[in-house]
Amino acid sequence: MLGIIGGTGLTRLANLQITHRKVARTPYGEPSGALTFGRLCDQDVIFIARHGYGHTIPPHAVNYRANLWAMKDHGVDRVVSVATVGGIHEALLPGTLVAPDQIIDYTHGRETTFFVGGDKPVTHLDFTFPYCMDRRAALLRAAANAGIGLRDGGVYGTVQGPRLETAAEINRMARDGCDMVGMTGMPEAYLARELELSYAAVGAVVNWAAGRGGSAEGIQMEDIQAVLGEVMLQVRHLLEQLVTDEAASCPAP
Ligand code: HPA
Fold it and tell me: I need a surface site. Which of 59, 169, 226, 231 has the fewest CB within 10 A?
């Protein structure tokens, strides 16, 4: 089953026919909110709002482990994660959707592994390619089928937040090779790898990163709000096409 993690601007899926909600318990504490079970274009999906349904949980305080564990525990084997990002690369202007293919992790102090404590052996997993190739390909196909622009690839620099960056920090990130900046890409992607979930992300660019393009003089929250609604509408269409494509490629027996 597909799991969808919604970020800022996507605390619910308008076309999801909700069947029930469940407050899940995990060995890692409580997820960001109840799991929402429902049907999207006739396919079963589980949805969770990463920042809580009232958008009250900041990026550094999200229980990434509990969210993913709860999803897997309830039958999710593949995950699409939606996150707003700031555009660093000149092609990533506000309103763009992007499927990142790489990550640089600048976060700290977050719970980054399930392999901790008790008698769990230390485990190092390959993370050369942080996103599942199949899931990315499915997203790109769905975008093409729906006529939605989805940029293929880019380096997602994940910062701690909740503050936005300085212009100098963004310049450094650009020198590091980051194309976009967001606050929730990690440890989510790595934890998904530990749980062997097929995981990919959609970045919704809602502003120029600090000091770039239209943010040369600073980032205006009203500008972000003006883009957010429209770009999340595109994300919803993309997700609907994704599940429709999946249904078509595995017809009922
Ligand atoms: N920086 C960090 N996270 C973000 C941004 C940004 O500019 N925009 C959306 N999420």
Answer: 226
